[in-house]
Design brief:
heterodimer, A: 365 residues, alpha+beta, Rossmann fold, 6-stranded mixed β-sheet, 8 helices, elongated, B: alpha+beta, OB fold (Dihydrolipoamide Acetyltransferase, E2P), 2 domains, 4-stranded antiparallel β-sheet, 24% helix, globular
Chain lengths: 365, 331
């Protein structure tokens, strides 16, 4: 098991900068998520950890040992791909035992190890079956088994559940997380699915255009995004942005959108100009007599809650409220924001202004 | 716009049952979503309504007319497939204009321009109108393919998972747009998805399909709050409904085999002890994985909860569902 440290790592493909000076640390035993849209550099980062790509500059440490320019074969990590690569002509058992046979382990030991792994994954019954006729889930379990059997220092997984349908995916993600909790192996997991990242990860790195936007504990990143990109990428529906021009100076705990004032966590840095107030849908309440007004455009029933879309003088806003509340399209209503949850962004750079509430979590790469 | 009626429609593919005796009324101006896992018969239903497949028995009526002998073209339906199908040698604008340029319709050019502009705006592709169809991303191609059905005013729109290839943000924008286009134009829309959020948010009616059978048909709220079976109850709601042995809390009706509990049907802080096994902070809510008398269940609590593994939470059921041995609802 191992700690993995990434220090100022860059990767260029020709003139294209896939990863721009990224730094973060995956602690021993963590389930660590690399999250971002396609093309953000998350898979390239993972492949550099594995040694499948070598960084253009920067350093990678596994358990304190520098491995930046070492090939994959010398790093003792296991890689699980999105498309489970199995040997089609071998049985389930053979597929799992193959890495051990290659290492020259005695037959009896191999057998014992494979039985152990099959037990963990719940595939003992199908060890003798050919992999050809297996369901997607069983194939993925076999691919995992082959990765686990070697006892590598770390597991690197590239969207391992991406090809499965939604229902089964939820089941497998729980199984994978439970497996991690039993084995405690350092795992780095690439996904573009924010819910999967929130659900499974101990820590998340959010990447965009090759840059680490933020890195930390899921709930903290969700509550206190460092950039507008992070704020909009995490959460569904995503954070509302209300653009306004004005002044937000250090020490203030109120901003004005037009002539309506909103209380906010006390700022410790300030700017003047194009600003943006960020508030999550679940932190908005609808109050008939509220000062800040909006017109209901749509209401979407979601069982326990409903999402109400409103037009305001600062653009479209979504609020998540209890589904029992009656809302009609066309209604005029007041909106109130929970003042403890608000983030103010600099619209020029997209960065969050530091406040008393978020100062501890604004870690950029 | 028109009403669509399916009358005892059956269809099999060799030994596999596609649809078994499905009867359904899609009311004029409604947005009907067919929900079910892979293989439930959703797409088969769409293809039979469109005329791409013929039923083995039963009939389809559109606007009161029996469609049995009509070709897809004669049925005046617009279909959007899961996989975009565009004319690769034409621009986005030409692709969108194509259905309106049909010699039968004789639409004036000014009307075509207006309609294409409007649809392009709704689907956020106005800036790509002069691009070749092949010079687009997958999501953009899918939007053009949706747009091509929207420029027309057919009797009924048939859509097969049209949003599944789009990213989350765009999906949530287009959900609202599709819903408002349908509501404002009074169009009849039959829509297939396995995404329960789409079903919940857009549908006036949801049809739940299970192995080729229509097992429940009603508003999303009816199906969520009053499901006929475990199967129907499991289609909607995240996290999914918990199904536990009926007598686990006591007080179950005699014929009940299992008790069904959605998160809001579990009262926390009162009742018997359960143990927290895992806490998932999802941002807007926190999911609790609980162990109660050796049964696992999942519920939700507020986002700022500081519960952790090993903590004890008291729970009791609150207006639960009960199901019999076959999975049918008994209370």
């Amino acid at each position: 098991m191992a700690q993995i440290k990434i220090e100022n790592v860059c990767k260029d493909f020709g003139t294209f900068n896939a990863v721009k000076s990224s730094s973060f640390t995956v602690e021993d035993g963590e389930f660590f998520m690399l999250l971002g849209p396609s093309g953000c550099g998350k898979t390239t980062t993972l492949r550099m950890m594995a040694g499948l790509e070598l960084p253009t500059s920067g350093k990678i440490y596994i358990d304190g040992e520098e491995v930046s320019q070492k090939p994959a074969s010398q790093r003792d990590i296991a890689f699980v791909f999105q498309m489970f690569a199995l040997y089609p002509h071998m049985s389930v058992g053979k597929n799992i035992s193959y890495p051990l046979q290659c290492q020259g382990l005695p037959k009896a030991d191999v057998k014992k190890k494979v039985a152990e792994i099959a037990e963990i994954l719940g595939i003992t019954e199908i060890l003798k079956r050919p992999v050809g006729g297996l369901s997607g889930g069983d194939r993925q379990r076999v691919a995992l088994g082959r990765a686990i059997v070697r006892d590598p220092k770390a597991f690197l997984m590239d969207e391992p559940l991406g090809a499965l349908d939604a229902e089964f995916r939820e089941h497998m993600s729980q199984e994978l997380r439970a497996l991690h909790d039993r084995m405690g192996a350092t795992t780095v997991y690439v996904t573009h699915d924010q819910l999967e990242a929130m659900q499974m990860g101990d820590k998340i790195v959010v990447m965009n255009h090759g840059v680490v936007e933020q890195f930390g504990v899921p709930q903290e990143i969700y509550d206190w995004p460092a950039t507008k990109f992070v704020a909009s990428f995490l959460g569904s529906p995503s954070m509302n942005f209300l653009d306004f021009e004005g002044m937000a100076s250090a020490g203030v705990d109120k901003v004005f959108l037009g002539d309506v004032g909103f209380e906010i966590p006390k700022l410790i840095e300030g700017i003047t100009g194009k600003l943006c107030l960020g508030v999550r849908p679940e932190h908005i309440t609808l109050k008939n007599d509220g000062v800040y007004r909006g017109r209901v455009v749509a209401s979407e029933y979601l069982g326990t809650t409903q999402v109400v879309t409103l037009d305001t003088s600062n653009g479209r806003v979504k609020a998540r409220i209890a589904s029992g509340v009656k809302v009609n399209v066309g209604d005029q209503t007041g909106l109130e924001f929970d003042p403890r949850t608000i983030t103010i962004f600099d619209n020029g750079t997209g960065r969050a202004l530091a406040s008393n509430s978020n100062k501890g979590v604004l870690k950029h790469g | 716009m028109a009403e669509v009626v399916l009358n005892n429609v059956s269809k099999s593919f060799g030994c596999d049952i596609g649809l078994a005796n499905v009867s359904m009324i899609v009311p004029d101006g409604s947005f009907v979503v067919l929900l079910g896992p892979t293989g439930a018969g959703k797409t088969t239903t769409l293809r039979i309504v469109s005329g791409l497949d013929k039923p083995d028995s039963g009939s389809v009526f559109i606007g009161g007319r029996d469609m049995s002998d009509c070709t897809p073209a004669q049925r005046d339906v617009a279909m959007v497939f899961q996989q975009y199908s565009l004319y690769p040698h034409l621009t986005v604008r030409q692709n969108l204009e194509f259905p309106l340029k049909s010699p039968i319709l004789k639409t004036p050019q000014s009307e075509i321009d207006r309609k294409v502009g409007e649809v392009a705006e709704i689907l956020q592709i106005s800036h790509k109108l002069n691009n070749k169809a092949t010079a687009l991303s997958g999501g953009e191609m899918q939007r053009v393919s949706i747009g091509r059905s929207l420029v027309r005013q057919p009797s009924v729109y048939l859509m097969d998972e049209p949003l599944s290839s789009l990213d989350a943000k765009l999906r949530s924008d287009l959900r609202i747009e599709l819903k408002s286009i349908q509501a404002n134009s009074g169009a009849t829309l039959l829509y297939v998805t396995h995404d329960q959020i789409e079903a919940m948010t857009m549908a006036t009616h949801v049809g739940v399909l299970d192995n080729g059978k229509l097992v429940q048909f009603g508003s999303p709220r009816e199906i969520y709050e009053n499901p006929v079976s475990i199967y129907a109850a499991s289609r909607l709601g995240q996290p999914r409904i918990n199904v536990l042995p009926a007598d686990i809390f006591g007080g179950a009706p005699d014929n009940a085999k299992t008790i069904g509990l959605r998160p809001e049907q579990i009262t926390q802080g009162d009742g018997e002890d359960s143990f927290v096994q895992r806490v998932e902070h999802l941002g807007d809510q926190t999911r609790l994985h609980l162990l109660f008398k050796n049964q696992e269940l999942i519920t939700v609590t507020n986002a700022q909860s500081d519960l952790k593994n090993g903590d004890i939470v008291k729970i009791r059921p609150n207006n639960p569902f009960y199901f019999d041995a076959s999975g049918a609802r008994v209370a």
